[in-house]
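Input record (Table S2, row 350):
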Amino acid sequence: MKNNATALTTRKKDDLIVVTGAGGFIAGSLVSYFHNQGFTNIRAIDKKPLPMWYQRTAGVESLSLDLSDRENCERAAEGAVEVYNLAADMGGMGFIENFRVECLRSILINTHMIEAAYNAGVDRFFFSSSACAYNTTLQKDPNVRALKETDAYPAMAERGYGWEKLVSEMFCQEYTAERGMKTAIARFHNVYGPNGTWDGGREKAPAALARKVIEAIETNDPNITIWGDGSQTRSFMYIDDCVKGIDMIMHCDELIATPINLGTSELISINDLVSLVEDIAGVKLKRVYDLNAPRGVAGRNSDNTFIKQVLGWEPDTSLRIGMQKTYQWIKQQYADRKAGKVTTAGYKDN
Ligand code: NAD
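Output record (nicotinamide-adenine-dinucleotide complex):
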């Protein structure tokens, strides 16, 4: 198998690794991943107050800072060898279709953070882009052709969120081209798993559907409401694959300043995802389709030709296995919340 993650071998266990957005889902899991690998000098940052973070890893410097502020970015980047910039105001379709201003304002985080990283002399800078950066005109059919990296241009990204990602990708590329900083850019396709948002308005389809099935069982409701007609298709990547992929992409010299898909190519319709969750839960519900709800593009899948070619690897956790773990975790969260315990990833903030 090909392994181009050359820089992994040169990184030292006490090099300072900075992870932004660490009070959220993916960055929180990334912190835990690095900590488990024996890295001893990790700085985790999020604007949320510490008690609201989804995960806190013991022994990690955890700071509550708003990174849309330049000085806070400078504080965050101080002494860093690597910066993983995952902080963003984001959520599932319900959030990104209704809060475009908030999504666009993440440009403040990205412009200040990359400049601060450059001024701090970091060795590598990672940016979490999204499949929402792809041209939406290529995503009008549920039976879509999978999106390859060149499909972002000519540009017609998702309004707000997708355009912000595309511009921030360009920042990374120009910081490499003009200033010589090594940047890495991964376009994530829907990520799901334990410790992700499962309630409150920012959750994505896998967590939302798992919660709805649990709610239906708990309340003896025979119905489940589905956004759109359920024919929309997507691919979903399990969190463990996502953090592993981030590490590999960041340390591959062939991928410097080169956007790459990070997702699975296992396409599934929302209707089939509902059936999968029902199967895991051992229940069958009556489907009610809300045709006025946000539904996003008709279809979207990840073409993994490039990642397989460069890294000799692609995310490979099956949706059934990943959803079983996610379902059990949300079921426990639901029970904990019902028992009066604090469940931050299911916190309702709007
Ligand atoms: P998340 O909402 O769980 O985490 C993002 C975190 O960023 C939140 O904890 C939030 O408080 C923090 N944040 C927002 N504004 C901030 C600010 N001004 N200063 C400091 N922190 C701030 O989301 P996630 O799913 O973990 O996503 C992480 C990254 O991956 C984001 O950049 C997102 O756009 C990208 N992404 C995620 C997915 C997905 O399916 N989850 C798909 C594509 C791209």
